[in-house]
Structure formats: structure tokens, C-alpha cells
């Protein structure tokens, strides 16, 4: 079931087109990462889905509710971690969370138990009485995340959730995002952190100049944009003398003294043949492995095009 | 609806109470200033006694105390302006606005929450200050402020606070920085300073009934400002506006487009090219459409004309001139070409002078429209019409037929001039209203541009020719009619 669905969603500011005809859907239990350079339209898309900005054209529904006509209901279903924590610095953390919980219609006992649960989970309970202005950057980001989670939302929009965090805190938040994945919840993650996107997201949408230019699982994107996987063979001796036999089987793309790389459309058929041929030739095969390809390669190829 | 607004109000008030920069001056003004004013009032009474004005000490206190009371009440509420100016734009600058806007609350709840939070604390301080001054006077000078005066000052102070806060919240929600909002605050501070001076004069004069009338005016201004604020509050604008820039080419493009549109089917420039227009089309289609579309302001102005003339008439009945003061039969002896021209504030008795004078008055009214939401042109119309009503009433009191008076002095040129002025005033009024309630999908500037375009069509194509014709009639025909009817 699609919890988030958009059809040719477009947003213009005057003559500037911030988001252009974005069509996507996010299923319950899915995490979708929105990747793109600064100003690509990620935040504007999320703001429209959170019923903060009205689309210029196109439609969007969140949990079946229209983001324009049912804006208030949508806002109650959505948890939004904004790009900047934007806290009230003179407020103690617990009071700050109570404020947003109350606006979400939660009773005091509900708020108290939820605040304690979340603050303990993120290691913030001891600092609950501290003023937010005294918090470090990472702590502020965590409080903003707790604010987004306070009402246990069905849909989560996380705009740069680990920015400004130290590695330990970032890992804590990433683990929390994994924990938040549930069969009833959909998450959209806006990030520049490609490793994070690849590690957390089920699918990735790359957005450029307001348009979605690529959408799919990390593997699908790599296949589509970088071609077949690059395979590498490492031997215990020099390649000399072995090449004529190998080149009849695969096309070598790169080679060194004791290694070579190739691609194939049918690895299930070719790789065993290749291993057999090398063994026949008396070569000592050390490894046959796929050369790691990062999402960064995909991203840079798209963004630089 | 109020529940969510109150959540916001509580948070904001707690935040203000934690800010020593707001609390310190409020506390000082609440505690020290009333004490200072009590001491000053006592001192003034003592000085009066010492200088031999003992019997007048009571009178001095009666004049000084209301003024001091007003000052004691006003000083703490001046801080509401600081809090209100910061309300939306401050959150925007601190980047906390987005989280707030993502909550399931309506624009009205958000707006009311901010409005109340900016007002409650300064008003509470003001009431406390007034109470301290009230008690202080009893203790130090055995002087008891009359309950009616105290009530008047409390209501007046509250209404002033609402005016300042409502205006400041509008400024705060329409700018991108606290600095810009502070600059806009001069549009609130200057009229408030003027208002305080008027109040001071009225308090020294001892005219409480006039001050109650002022309260009524302030209530109307409050309602207009709050309505304007709620109508133009737009969370999208608040979040997405990046610069407070004046895009003159863009404004000019919008204006040209809106001017070219038929009034009954106006669209915005971003939706396509401007339609073609001709003078013939403007007269044939635009003007009739505008008169149909703007029936409400036209009816309001006509009603004001009727009420003002009736008011003038009633005033004449209350203050009749002694018999013989006006000699209508001797009108024929007056040399209008010289006598009238020598009178201050009146134009020379020639076509050009009368025409330019009328245009100038309408121009002044138009200039005052944006800051008064259309009240200035209405007041400028109200004055001459009530004077005409007054003189018609006086004529009746003196035994002359008021109809003959009107037919002789007003009707020949007034039949053209009055509709022209009514039209200009009605469209000025509409110009003021366009700020308060832009049409759906229009920003304030677009709404204002549309109202200017409509005003110009009416003004240039109808009002100016009518005024010119009226001036010609007034100079060349009215005196003849007057002489015919009254000149013996």
C-alpha cells in the first residue's frame, strides 16, 4: 500500500520552477532516499508532502489524504525533521517536546511517557532539564528528531538527519531510522550522505533541477547507469601466456601484472568457464570478485551529465 | 480553535518571561514609573498650594492625573510592539518557523496565538501599573481617580495595545528579517505618537465623551488590522520569501497586465500575455463592469454623504444663526471673482483653480488611503458635504427654502461634481480595502495594483472629465442660477 503518492507534483516560486512534475510513490515499510545537489528541490518536495507548501500543480496524497484539501490531517500524520533544528533556545528540552506534543493533540500522560522513552533512546534523558541553547549541535539535531517522532507518526520526512553529528551520534540516529522502519510506516530521507542513503534506503530517487532523473534500488541504479558489474581476477603468477586463452572467453577492460578485469552479461555462465580455463592452463587463482562500485559513482554521473 | 492558539500563547509568554531584555524594562516601568508619577502629581499639587493656587490644586490634579494615568498605562504596552514585531519574523530568522508550520494547526490559530502572546504580558504590566498609580495617589495625596476615568484609560490602553500588536504582527508576517520589521514599525509608531498627543489634549481638556468616541474608532481600526492580518497571513509566503525586494519591472509588468484585463475576468500575469485594450473598450465594457463590481463601496460612500448632510442639518438646528446674519437676498451684490478668491483655503473663482483644487483634495485623500484603509478620502468628503447640510439647515432656520438654497448654490455643478467625488472616494475606499482583503490567489501587492488599475480607469475616464465639466458649470452657470433664484 502506497502511503505517499505524487502525480506530476510541481512547485513554482514566481517564474522559478523548484519542483517539476515529480511522480513517485512510497510504500508502507519503505525508506526512500531523495538525493540531489543543493537547490535541487528535495526540501521543497518534502515541504509540499508535509502540507507546508501548496503545490502549483499536480497532486499528492499522504496516507490517502490530499496534501492541499486535508492539510491539517496530513500534518497530524507526518513527522518532519527540518533541515535546520530551529529550536527555542531559552526552553528546556522536555518543555520544548511537551509543546510540540500538545500541538499534536497528545495528552499529558501520553507526552510524558513518550518523551521519556525517546529521550532515553537517544541518550538525552539526563539533559532533559537543560536549556536547548546549551546543547551541542548533535544534541540539538537529536532533539529535533525526537520532536519529529513525538506523536509516533505514520510518515516521516527526515531532512539531513545526521548532519552536524559526531560519528557516534550519527550511528545512533541511523540505527534509530532502521528501527523506525516498520510495516506501517513510510520514510523519506533527504540526504547528501551517499553512504547513508545506500545503507538505509530501499530505493533512491536522484533529483536534479526539480526533476527526478533516476529512481530505483541502489543495485538497479548501478546496473542502469554503470553497466554490468566489473569483475576482477587475481592470480598467483604473471598473466603472460594466459591471455590468449582468456581473451577468447571475455573482453579484458583493465589488466596488471597478475590481475585483470572484465565485464560479462552472463556471469553465471562465463565465470565457471573462466575458472575452468584458468585451472586447465595451470594458473593458481587467488580471487574472483566484483569490483565495488559506490552510489557516489552513480550520483556523480547523473549530476555531472 | 482557541485551545491551540493558547498553547502557542503560553509558550511565547514563557519565552518572554525568560528574556531579561523584555522583563527588566517592563518591571521597571510597572513598578517605578507609577511611583514616579504619583510623586510628580503630589508635587504638582503641593507647588500649587505653595504658590498660592491652593483653591486650584484640585483642578490641577483633575487635569494632571488623567494625563499621568494615560502615560502610566501606555509605557508598559509600548513593549508589546517589540514582542509582536519579532513574533513571526524572529522565528523565521531562528529557523524555528518550519517546525511550527508543520503542526496540525490552522493559520488563524497560529496568528491568534502570536497576537495574544504579544499582548498579554505588556497589558498585564500596564494594568498593574495603573493599579499602583491608583493606590499610590490614594495613599500619598488622598486623591481618588473616578471609576469612569479609570475604565476609560484601561479600555483606551487595551485598544492601543491591540492596534500596535495587530499592526506589528502584520509587519512581522510580511517581512524576511527583524530589521525590516523594525523599519516598518515606524508606520505604527508615528500614528501612535500622534494619537497620544490627541489623547493628551483631550485629557487636559477633560472631554471624556470624545475619548470614548476615540475608543470606538480604535476598536474599528483594531478589527480592520486583525482582519487584515488574518487575511494576508500566509504560511507559504512566510517560509519561502527570501528577499524584501522591490521588483519595479515586475510590478510594472503586473500593473500593465491588470490594467489591460477586463474587470470581470482578471487573471494574474504569470498565467499568460496581457489582453489588448482600447479606450473604446474601457468606456464600453470596463467602466460599466467596474461600477457593477464595486457596488458596495459606492453604496457606503453614498450612505456617508446622506449621513453627513443629515448631520450638518441637525447641527444647524442645534446652533441656529441669528436672523439677518446671512442675507440671501443680497447675494447678487457679491463679486465672486474677487471676494471668494481672497478667502483662505478656497480656490480662486475660475475654472482652472476650482478644477485643480478638487483634484488636489482627491489627491490628498488618495495619498492618505494606504495608511488609513480608505478613511482619509471618506473624511475629506464628509466635511464639505456636512457643511452643505449645515448651511441648508441654517437656511431653513432663517426661513428660506433649503431646496431653493441647494438649487441655487449646489445643484447646477453639484449634479456633476458630487457623483465624480463619490466615484473617486468609493474607488479610494476600495483601494484601502484591497490591502485588507486581497482576492483569492492575489498577494497584497497584486491586490493593490489591481485596485490602482481600477481606480485609474474610473479616475481618468470619468472623474477628471466630470470635475472639469463641474468646474466650468460652477464658474459660468451656477452664479447665473443663483442670481436668478436669489438675486432678486
Tell me about this structure:
The complex is a heterodimer of chains A (305) and B (488). Chain A is of the alpha/beta class. Chain A has two domains: 215 residues, P-loop containing nucleotide triphosphate hydrolases (Rossmann fold, 3-Layer(aba) Sandwich); 64 residues, Alpha-Beta Plaits. Helix content of chain A is 37%, strand content 28%. Chain A has eleven helices and 14 strands. In chain A, strand 9 and strand 10 form a beta hairpin. In chain A, helix 3 crosses helix 4 and helix 8 crosses helix 11. The model of chain A has no long low-confidence stretch (mean pLDDT 88). Chain B is mostly helical and 488 residues long. Chain B folds into two domains: 239 residues; 233 residues, no CATH class. In chain B, helix 5 runs antiparallel to helix 6. The longest helix of chain B has 37 residues. Chains A and B meet through helix 2 and helix 3 of A and helix 1, helix 4 and helix 10 of B.
Provide the fold topology.
The complex is a heterodimer of chains A (305) and B (488).
Chain A: E1 2-13, E2 16-27, E3 31-35, H1 42-49, E4 57-62, E5 65-66, H2 71-77, E6 78-81, H3 93-103, H4 108-121, H5 137-149, E7 155-159, H6 167-180, E8 186-191, H7 194-200, E9 203-208, E10 211-216, H8 218-226, E11 230-235, H9 243-247, E12 252-255, E13 259-263, H10 267-280, E14 285-290, H11 295-304
Parallel strand pairs in A: 3-8, 3-9, 6-7, 7-8
Antiparallel strand pairs in A: 1-2, 1-4, 4-5, 9-10, 11-13, 11-14, 12-13
Chain B: H1 2-17, H2 20-50, H3 57-93, H4 97-101, H5 107-141, H6 147-173, H7 178-184, H8 186-205, H9 208-232, H10 235-240, H11 248-260, H12 279-293, H13 295-318, H14 336-339, H15 351-372, H16 375-397, H17 402-409, H18 411-436, H19 444-476, H20 478-486
Helix pairs in contact in B: 1-5, 2-3, 2-5, 3-5, 3-6, 3-8, 5-6, 6-9, 11-19, 12-19, 13-16, 13-18, 15-16, 15-18, 15-19, 16-17, 16-18, 17-20, 18-19
Amino acid at each position: 500500500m502506497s502511503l505517499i503518492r505524487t502525480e506530476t507534483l510541481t512547485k513554482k516560486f514566481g517564474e522559478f520552477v523548484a519542483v517539476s512534475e515529480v511522480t513517485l510513490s512510497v510504500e508502507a515499510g519503505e525508506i526512500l532516499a531523495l538525493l540531489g545537489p543543493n537547490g535541487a528541490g528535495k526540501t521543497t518536495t518534502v515541504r509540499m508532502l508535509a502540507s507546508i507548501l501548496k503545490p502549483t500543480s499536480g497532486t499528492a496524497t499522504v496516507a490517502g489524504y490530499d496534501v492541499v484539501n486535508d492539510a491539517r490531517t496530513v500534518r497530524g500524520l507526518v513527522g518532519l525533521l527540518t533541515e535546520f533544528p530551529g529550536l527555542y533556545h531559552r526552553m528546556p528540552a522536555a518543555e520544548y517536546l511537551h509543546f510540540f506534543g500538545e500541538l499534536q493533540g497528545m495528552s499529558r500522560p501520553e507526552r510524558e511517557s513518550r518523551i521519556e522513552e525517546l529521550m532515553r533512546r537517544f541518550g538525552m534523558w539526563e539533559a532533559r532539564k537543560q536549556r536547548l541553547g546549551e546543547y551541542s549541535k548533535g544534541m540539538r539535531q537529536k532533539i529535533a528528531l525526537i520532536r519529529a517522532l513525538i506523536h509516533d507518526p505514520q510518515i516521516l520526512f527526515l531532512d539531513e538527519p545526521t548532519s552536524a553529528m559526531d560519528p557516534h551520534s550519527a550511528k545512533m540516529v541511523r540505527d534509530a531510522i532502521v528501527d523506525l522502519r516498520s510495516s506501517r510506516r513510510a520514510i523519506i530521507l533527504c540526504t547528501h550522505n551517499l553512504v547513508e542513503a545506500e545503507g538505509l534506503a530501499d530505493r533512491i530517487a536522484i533529483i536534479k533541477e526539480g526533476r527526478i532523473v533516476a529512481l530505483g534500488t541502489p543495485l538497479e541504479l548501478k546496473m542502469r547507469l554503470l553497466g554490468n558489474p566489473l569483475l576482477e581476477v587475481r592470480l598467483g603468477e604473471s598473466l603472460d601466456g594466459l591471455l590468449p586463452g582468456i581473451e577468447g572467453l571475455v573482453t579484458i577492460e583493465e589488466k596488471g601484472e597478475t590481475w585483470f578485469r572484465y565485464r560479462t552479461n552472463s556471469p553465471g555462465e562465463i565465470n565457471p568457464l573462466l575458472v575452468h580455463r584458468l585451472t586447465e592452463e595451470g594458473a593458481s587463482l587467488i580471487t574472483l570478485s566484483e569490483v565495488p562500485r559506490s552510489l557516489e559513482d552513480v550520483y556523480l554521473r547523473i549530476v555531472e551529465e | 480553535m482557541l485551545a491551540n492558539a493558547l498553547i502557542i500563547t503560553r509558550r511565547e509568554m514563557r519565552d518572554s518571561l525568560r528574556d531579561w531584555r523584555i522583563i527588566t524594562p517592563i518591571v521597571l516601568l510597572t513598578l517605578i514609573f507609577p511611583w514616579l508619577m504619583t510623586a510628580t502629581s503630589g508635587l504638582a499639587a503641593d507647588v500649587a498650594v505653595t504658590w498660592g493656587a491652593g483653591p486650584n490644586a484640585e483642578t490641577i490634579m483633575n487635569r494632571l492625573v488623567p494625563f499621568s494615568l494615560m502615560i502610566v498605562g501606555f509605557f508598559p504596552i509600548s513593549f508589546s510592539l517589540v514582542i509582536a514585531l519579532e513574533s513571526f519574523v524572529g522565528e523565521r530568522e531562528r529557523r524555528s518557523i518550519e517546525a511550527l508550520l508543520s503542526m496540525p494547526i490552522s493559520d488563524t490559530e497560529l496568528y491568534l496565538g502570536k497576537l495574544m502572546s504579544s499582548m498579554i504580558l505588556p497589558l498585564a504590566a500596564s494594568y498593574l501599573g495603573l493599579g499602583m498609580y491608583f493606590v499610590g495617589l490614594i495613599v500619598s495625596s488622598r486623591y481618588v481617580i473616578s471609576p469612569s476615568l479609570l475604565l476609560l484609560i484601561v479600555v483606551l490602553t487595551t485598544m492601543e495595545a491591540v492596534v500596535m500588536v495587530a499592526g506589528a504582527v502584520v509587519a512581522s508576517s510580511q517581512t524576511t528579517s527583524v530589521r525590516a520589521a523594525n523599519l516598518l514599525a515606524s508606520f505604527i509608531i508615528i500614528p501612535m505618537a500622534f494619537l497620544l498627543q490627541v489623547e493628551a489634549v483631550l485629557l487636559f481638556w477633560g472631554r471624556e465623551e470624545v475619548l470614548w468616541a476615540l475608543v470606538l474608532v480604535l476598536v474599528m481600526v483594531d478589527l480592520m488590522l486583525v482582519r487584515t492580518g488574518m487575511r494576508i497571513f500566509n504560511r507559504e509566503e512566510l517560509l519561502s520569501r527570501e528577499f524584501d525586494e522591490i521588483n519595479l519591472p515586475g510590478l510594472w509588468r503586473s500593473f500593465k497586465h491588470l490594467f489591460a484585463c477586463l474587470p470581470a475576468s482578471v487573471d494574474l500575469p504569470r498565467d499568460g500575455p496581457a489582453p489588448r485594450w482600447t479606450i473604446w473598450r474601457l468606456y464600453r465594457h470596463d467602466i460599466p463592469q467596474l461600477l457593477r463590481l464595486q457596488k458596495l463601496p459606492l453604496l457606503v460612500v453614498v450612505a456617508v454623504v446622506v449621513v453627513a448632510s443629515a448631520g450638518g442639518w441637525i447641527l444647524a438646528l442645534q446652533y441656529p444663526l441669528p436672523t439677518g446674519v446671512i442675507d440671501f437676498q443680497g447675494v447678487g451684490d457679491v463679486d465672486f471673482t474677487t471676494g471668494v478668491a481672497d478667502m483662505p483655503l478656497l480656490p480662486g473663482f475660475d475654472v482652472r483653480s476650482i478644477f485643480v483644487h478638487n483634484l488636489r483634495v482627491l489627491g490628498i485623500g488618495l495619498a492618505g488611503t494606504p495608511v488609513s484603509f480608505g478613511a482619509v478620502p471618506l473624511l475629506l468628503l464628509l466635511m464639505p458635504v456636512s457643511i452643505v447640510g449645515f448651511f441648508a439647515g441654517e437656511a431653513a432656520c432663517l426661513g428660506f427654502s433649503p431646496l431653493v438654497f441647494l438649487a441655487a448654490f449646489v445643484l447646477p455643478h453639484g449634479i456633476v461634481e458630487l457623483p465624480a467625488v463619490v466615484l473617486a472616494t468609493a474607488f479610494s475606499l476600495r483601494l484601502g480595502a484591497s490591502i485588507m482583503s486581497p482576492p483569492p490567489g492575489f498577494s497584497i501587492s497584486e491586490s493593490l495594483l489591481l485596485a490602482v488599475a481600477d481606480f485609474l480607469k474610473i479616475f481618468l475616464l470619468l472623474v477628471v472629465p466630470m470635475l472639469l465639466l463641474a468646474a466650468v458649470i460652477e464658474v459660468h452657470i451656477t452664479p447665473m442660477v443663483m442670481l436668478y433664484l436669489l438675486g432678486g
